[in-house]
Amino acid sequence: METWEISLRVKYDYPFIEISSRYPGARISMWCVWNREMLHVPMGHENLMEELEEYAKNLNLTFEKHQRSSDGIVLTMKDSCEVLDSIWNIAERNNCSLVHPAVYLDGWGYFKIISFSENDTKKLFAELPRKGPNELLSKKVVHIDAVPSNIWVETFFEQLTDKQIDAIVKAFDYGYYRSPRDITTDSIATSLGITRSTYEEHLRKAENRLMEALLPYLKIFRAGGRKREEMVTSHIEVSSLDA
Prior knowledge:
9 helices, alpha+beta, about 25% strand, Arc Repressor Mutant, subunit A, disordered C terminus
């Protein structure tokens, strides 16, 4: 059985897509976690925030949490999938899984979807045109064993350049992140045949982009559900029952 990883963009009547068209370059990212939606809005877009709040109000939804991060604003609200027919619903109807985050940018919705059969993939694409213009960005077969790691790897690393990847891998391999530190950036740069300032620029950009990719998931983990102690207690109780 083949597993398909599909990247596409769609333009249809959906509030986040419509709002993004009025703010060129403003990348709105959305994660669905259980019955909640978490949004990340980049810095410097106060008017965009006002529109999002008005959108939520019109759906009888409210922003539950609203917190400023280093590069924007993170907010959560109740899931709107029951109110709006979104790509999430289409994927679910066709036995496909949507990989988070969805991105709304310049009047388009960008999505990554996992399909577990060619037939489901065909049904998905048969339904998409009913929503509006759509464009297939990539479609590839992924071995089922690679699906979890492939999804996370692309989410975290797709914004890194080859030089930035090389810089951070070398830093790790040479012991730069050990405590105490085994090597200096000057020594790594010399081994690579580049200046220290050039190497440090690649390294810092790599670190920043990795943190930008990782932090939304960390915030979900911090904000979600029960406290860790409660989770541990629950696990112990379940283990006792199994015994």
